[in-house]
Amino acid sequence: MSKTVPFRPQSLGCAPARTLAMAAALAACAWSAQAAELVVAENPASIVIDDLAPASAYPSVIAVGSVAPAVISKVVVTLHGFSHANPDDVDILLVAPDGTRSILMSDAGGDVPATDQTLAFSPSATTPVGDQATILAGTFRPANYRSAGAGAVTDTFAEPGPGAQNSAPADLDAFNGIDPNGEWKLYVVDDAQGNTGAIAGGWSLALTVPALFTVTKTADTNDEVCDEDCSLREAIAAADSGDLVRFSPLFDSAQTITLAGSQLLIGRALTIQGPGAELLAISGNSLSRVLRVVGALSVTLSGMTIRDGRVAGNGGGILSSSFLTLLDVVVRDNTATEAGFGGGVALDFQGGNFVGCTYTGNTADGIGGAIHFQGANGAVLRLANTTLSGNAALVGGAGVEVLGLYGSDSVLQVANSTIVDNTATVNGGIEARTVGPGSTATVLVRNSIVADNGTPNTGVIADEQDPGGPATIASEGYNLSNDADATVFDQASDRVAVEPMLGALADNGGHTPTRVPLPGSPAIDAGERSGSDIDQRGNLRPNDRLEIANAAGGDGSDIGAVEEGTGAIPPGTVFMDDFE
Q1: Is residue 485 part of a domain?
Q2: What is the pTM of this model?
């Protein structure tokens, strides 16, 4: 049984937009939109967590209806009365009506029993549910704790669930911008023998329906009003926490917003939904950083290009101290000077989710040509279906730099990605570095190409002057590198000392430029989908070539961000993958 409290907005004299094509009508009333509203829905029926089996019910369902406008900017999930003798056994997955998904908790809480605890999972929480800490009532970020390397744990949700979840996201921001109407499904599994539990009071959803603000022009003005004449800067200033910024039909053709010498500043939890990276570019004009995000917030950017940012310091394109989600974003030709970190993006103290993105032409005078990441408190940055190509760093980590600094723990997960032709003095592809006592830096790589980034492609560094804790880069299988040394890519399914044979970075379909495997590439059919039904272009994964033998244990997917060939998606296909 499920119960829905429908949302019916008060009349503002105009209808809310449900598609980009209707944004022009919305523009006439967006500035008078009411504050973000909550839709609360629940299923109070008890969920019995059986031993070494799917729970009863499986799935537990909440039906959401009559949400208008049909878009959300935040999801909070609450489990009422969670008990289990060994919480580490429990895996919980939330799946939205359109197939988008997030792990809520997996292998969390250790072996200390939890009794009748109310657990809320929110993207605004600052702390993830603990790994070995006792699970007590509170509000947490989702977390998926799993081992690396040969013993890596795969979360599996048997039918009617979506199956094995390699590199599954633990990120409620994945639901930002989707249509929430339909059935939400909660899959609960006990994956080890000997203990049982329950979610005695069922579960509930709190969905934020945002106020909408529509950008109607490219000029970078700021009169502090977002009306029918609204710049991006004005929309950001007018929007409140939880709101959504969209773009008018002007942006149905390619447009560039050129900043007038100062960065855009976001200090609230916002979603900015662009029309596509090929249609919208936001340029710093080499005079300023493009975007600064401050505060322990959650910000989502999608469908845009961030370019030509320049700063004396960190984050030439974007500098963020908030949880940052980038979906189908191109980050290109940005520069961090004066020993700066993160030519493209610098992400500090919070995690992130970068999916379907391309980073190219970014430069750092210090470390992290495309991406610099310094986490804390269990923060994880996740790259999926992403390409990093043609970036540079004067020191190391031209593709991505992961830094553990004085007690901070930084974790990078890379899946289905291509990191090639980036240049640095050392460790041109991926570098994990620690500085100071108690620091750690961990990188986990699966079904990805890391090649032609200099010798070596990857490396770990502990600071000589102020040594840190362990810096680790580990393979989770199905990776390809042209390094002859198999120290990092050491799984039986990895391919080393081979050239990837990729085409140049180009428009190969989809919203972002990619590098497609050429005929004869050793990446073709040598991988495993790792939880994704689509590649970076949105084409089907796998696109199995029957004349090519699959890798042992693989499924005919190609290694890297892109499947060779077209792999067109049949009309009406509904995906059940980790990366939508």
Answers
A1: yes
A2: 0.86
